[in-house]
Amino acid sequence: MNDYSPSYLARLNAFPENFARFITRIPGVEVSTDRESVISALTPMYEETLRQGGIDPKYLRRAQQVHGNRVAIVGDIGCSFPVEGVDGLYCGGVADCCLGIYVADCAAVWVYDTLSGSRGLVHSGKRGTEQNIVGELFARMYRVLGVHARNCIAVISPCVRPPHYEVDMPPIICRQLQEAGVLPENIVDSGLDTAADLETFYSYRAEKGCTGRMLALFGRRSPAAQQVGSLQ
């Protein structure tokens, strides 16, 4: 199975403790307009990707994703149900939980504090970007965990872009990241348009709602998994 670790995530995965993945289109899975049914069909493959990375699926933490700008801190103690009313999650550097965000044209944004190991992952679609969800994430991570944006790496996932969408979200997100204090050289934009490559990605807009969901993941690998990775 593909490990879904593309080059734009290399800056994050260069740290042996990090498990950053972007699970793209999975061949053979029937898609529909029913989001929950599609996610249910995709879940076994998602969980296998976690296991291959040395992460127990029980540690997956998800956001409800209501197209807002609220974020929540999560930890190892929790459940598999999405955190209600939020579009972003973050956790401290020693937490074993794995953050997860579903997208099908919206951008997922990974944030990693290179000093403390704290992690964040947000769903920044049109409305979330308008409401500056990445700015809210950094405000919360600073207030709760003492994270300074200047020490962070941020990565923007594949998402819908012009000419397939009238709003170009990545430049706006890049500006918001810099306004929050992230150094320009620490911002990575995948540069990929989900609507332009339906063999690789799901696209809600291009497929007129009859589509699947990709999954952005950001976890902390177990010491054993880190050791295996260092030997490969």
Written overview of the protein:
The protein is an alpha/beta fold. It has a single domain, classed as CNF1/YfiH-like putative cysteine hydrolases (4-Layer Sandwich). It has six helices and ten strands, in the order αβαββββββααβαββα. It is globular.
Which SSEs are present, and which pair or pack?
Layout: H1 10-13, E1 18-23, H2 35-52, E2 60-62, E3 71-73, E4 88-91, E5 98-103, E6 107-113, E7 119-124, H3 126-130, H4 133-145, E8 152-156, H5 169-180, E9 187-189, E10 214-220, H6 223-231
Parallel strand pairs: 2-5, 3-4, 8-9
Antiparallel strand pairs: 1-10, 4-7, 5-10, 6-7, 6-8
Helix pairs in contact: 4-5
Features:
10 strands; alpha/beta; six-stranded mixed sheet; 26% helix; 232 residues; four-stranded mixed sheet; CNF1/YfiH-like putative cysteine hydrolases; globular
Short description:
It contains six helices and ten strands, in the order αβαββββββααβαββα.
CATH homologous superfamily descriptor: CNF1/YfiH-like putative cysteine hydrolases
Q: Give the helix level as a range of percent.
A: 25-40%
Look at the structure and give the mean pLDDT. Answer: 93
- Total beta-strand segments: 10
What is the CATH architecture descriptor? 4-Layer Sandwich
SS content category? alpha/beta
The CATH topology assignment is: CNF1/YfiH-like putative cysteine hydrolases
Give me the number of helical elements: 6
